[in-house]
Each structure stands twice: as C-alpha cells, then as structure tokens.
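quick one before i forget lol
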Amino acid sequence: MADEQSKPTPRKKSGWINLLVDYGPVIIFFIAYRMYRPADPDNMVGEVLAVTRSTGIFIVATIAALAISHFKLGKISPMLWLTTVLVVGFGALTILTQDPFWIRHKPTGIYLLFAVLLLGGWLRGKAMLRILLESAFDGLSEAGWMKLSRNWGFFFLFLAGLNEVFASPEWFSFDEWLKAKLVVFMPLSFLFTFAHMPMLMKHGLGASDVEPPGQ
C-alpha cells in the first residue's frame, strides 16, 4: 500500500504544452529580434546588438521551456536536454564573440547530432528516437520505432543541409534566416510528422498521440 502511495502521479498529456515547449522559444527569439533590429539595414553595430540581445532572450526562453516541461509534463526528455545544452552553448558563444555565426549554425549542430544518434542506432538495430523522446508515441511497436528513427535520422540530415543554405550570410540576412525557422522549418517538421500517420497507426499508435518531435 505504501509503495502505491509513493509512486508519482502521471501528468496528463497536453498537446499545446508540448508545442509551447518545442516552438515557443523560437517564436520568442523571432519577436525579440524584430523588436531590437535597427531600422537602417546598414547599421552593423545595431544589427549585432539586436542579435546578441535576442539571443540572450532565446537562451532564457529555452531554459524556461525546460522548466515548463518538468513542472507541467512531469519529465524532461533527453532530446530537450540536448537541445537546451546546445542552445545555451551556441548562444553564449554568440554573445561573447558578438558574432551571429554561432547562433545561425546552432540548428545545424542540433540536426547533425540527432541524425548521428538516430541513424547510428538504426544501423545497430536500436530505436534511439524512443530513448530521446521517452516513449512520446505510446503504443508504437518496435518496428514502428525503428522506421521512425530511421526516417527522422535522414530528415535531420536534410534539415542540417537546408539550415546551412539559409545560414549563409552571402545568400540570406539574419532576419531571413530567422524567418525561415518559422515559415520553412516548422511547417516541414509538421508535414513530415503527419505524413507518417498511416505508418504509425499501422504499428499501434493512435492518431491522437502524434506530435512532431523536437524544435
């Protein structure tokens, strides 16, 4: 009886909280930069100041998302831990060096890390996505997890290459790169996730459990 009382009560799933944790910091980052960016595009001092200020806010928002996940969802997935560490690391380098290069290439580092973990696990016959997400897709079979890990691994490689294109200052401004996070990367992630619905449901997942992994 005592053992039953000592067990933690599972937190109720909340789709909107998951979305807030995954995408809230990026949206806040975008809004902060828009607030601080100089009216004159040639004002490089003002541009660097806007980037460093909005990056600082991005770091705070990411840590806040970590806390929300802990207190509202009752857990912090390994994927969220890794993402937060890289955001803080690349963000700190951006602020210390006053160079937007680091925060621009932060997503590439995240995508490559997850791609290596997922594809490396897949090649060894281990569904690493289940470990990174801590079984966010309840009911999914082992075969389903393996296919999902493989597909997301290759998709993360694609996203890493795409971010390198948008992160190039010769082709896109910082504002355009940041805007792409919302109008290109986010929709692509949702479309890629929901394209898997038939496969996920075939392998035991209910349609209500589908949520895009990671930001």
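fyi Residues 1-12 have pLDDT under 50 and may be disordered.
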